[in-house]
Amino acid sequence: MKIHITSFRHADLAKGKRGFLAAIASVLFTGVFAQSGTNSPYSQFGLGTLAEQASGFNRGMNGLALGFHDGNQVNYLNPASYARLDSITFLFDVGMSGQITNFSENGTKRNIKQANFEYVVTGFRLAHRLGMSFGILPYSNVGYDYSTTGYVNNRNSVIYTNTYSGSGGLHQAYAGLGWSPIKNFSIGVNAGYLWGTISRSIQNSYSDNYANTLSKSYNAEVRSYNISAGLQYDLKLSKTDLLTIGLTYGLGHKIGGKPTCRVISTNTQTAVSDSLVLGGSNIKLSIPHTFGAGFTYNHANKLRVGADYTLQKWSKVSFPEYVSTSGNTASYLLNDNYFKDRHKMTIGGEYCPNPSGRNLLSRIRYRTGISYATPYIKVNGKNGPNEISGSLGFGIPIINSYNNRSFLNISAQIAHSSANGMISENIFRINLGITFNEKWFQKWKVE
Questions:
Q1: 128, 214, 407, 434: which sits with the fewest CB atoms below 10 Å from its CB?
Q2: Collapsing DSSP states into helix, strand and coil, what is residue 363?
Q3: In terms of C-beta density within 10 A (0-12 exposed, 13-18 middle, 19 or more buried), how is residue 182 classed?
Q4: How many Å separate Cα 395 from the centre of its chain?
Q5: Which residue has the higher pLDDT, 129 or 211?
Q6: In the chain, count of helices (H) and strands (E)?
């Protein structure tokens, strides 16, 4: 079989009210113009390619987050961290990325370039030991377009072409609270709205009128909720050393979607078509229960290192699958063996020579991290590709006449995904995040 891959498809924020209006406008803009963040052919399975969801500063550490809290950064991967947000600031964080992906199979290679607007989040202190955050970020992405060609029954005179394409994905808007009821302990929760449309199609054609052509289109439209919770506990080891333990949980539940499969068979000689619609309101998509645990060791706010482990129970989730049976009949029913549990391990950290120093170079935060993740999908009954990735990043202070607390977070990531007998992917990604830190709640003294 010959594989032919065609394509895998503000100025400064002002103070006060103007900064808030800019933040709200950016949130609305993201919601309207959300786009697919992948070109991977593996996004044709399940809910698509799962989004990383980490913010700009997390990505420098390759997503390390569960035991991490910082008063000047929004860490929405563990909502318990909101309780530690700085009491006088309003944080606004926006992120984007650009990547080059190399796909390879059986000697065929293809490079694809892509840029994405990733997320926008805010965070601020509501009261003593009580913080809040809200924003928009991706959940999964679908985006691919490729074709396969070959001869029918080894006949050199008839060539078939199967074209596969898909687009869409799921997005989430959330609002969360983090509260510290007692010293060194905090809990938090994110409650959100999960929405999106997933569209996939397979079209079959022949070089002559050899047989009827067949096309299948799969569609689902999700409108549901999403809830996650977390806790963090600080264990003081010495005057300068702190160990933070973090735990998270994401609720698994049905998200609806009313997935349908439309099958159209066309007689190439008469151009007469027959269509069949399967699925609908009697089928519901689901997301899994998710468990996470991690820790971060902090030395004098200069050195922070840690590790995270996340388990997503996809094996308990069903997904609809088209099955053609004998007698020209077909079904579109939930398959209980479509997914497998996903495990992810991350190790990372950051180093800052002098967080309160006057020299710019001494205040830069140097970050790095590595991760290993197993797949949640199966491809023709076999496990999908494992992924190993690494990152290097910097948190550069933005210093001007009225603000020296904002940060430009830049990181580079490389990721490799592969499985025996399947397409391998190599990704080089540049992440850019800007955290604006405004003094909204500072108390002024009049003398």
A1: 128
A2: helix
A3: exposed
A4: 21
A5: 129
A6: 3, 24
CA of residue 205 relative to chain centroid, distance: 35
Q: Which residue from 441, 445, 444, 447 is spatially nearest to 15, judged by alpha carbons?
A: 441
* Tens digit of each residue's pLDDT (9 = 90 or more) over 228-254: 999 999 999 999 999 999 999 999 999
pLDDT at 226: 97
How far is it, in rounded angstroms, from Cα 75 to Cα 52? 13
Distance between start and end Cα atoms, the chain: 82
- In a 13 Å sphere around the CA of 65, the CA atoms on its Cβ side amount to 27
pTM: 0.88
pLDDT by residue (tens digit) across 380-408?
889 999 999 999 999 999 876 555 678 99
Return phi, psi of residue 24, to 5°. -65, -40
Q: 366 with 338: CB under 8 angstroms?
A: no
The pair of structure tokens assigned to 323 is 């099955």
Q: Is 329 exposed, middle or buried (0-12, 13-18, 19+ CB in 10 A)?
A: exposed
Mean pLDDT of the 303-331 span = 90
Closest CA to 41 of 130, 184, 147, 113: 147
The 3-class secondary structure across 72-140, one letter per residue, is CCCCCCCHHHHHHCCCCCEEEEEEEEEEEEEEEECCEEEEEEEEEEEEEEEEEEEECCEEEEEEEEEEE
Which amino acid type is present at position 239?
K
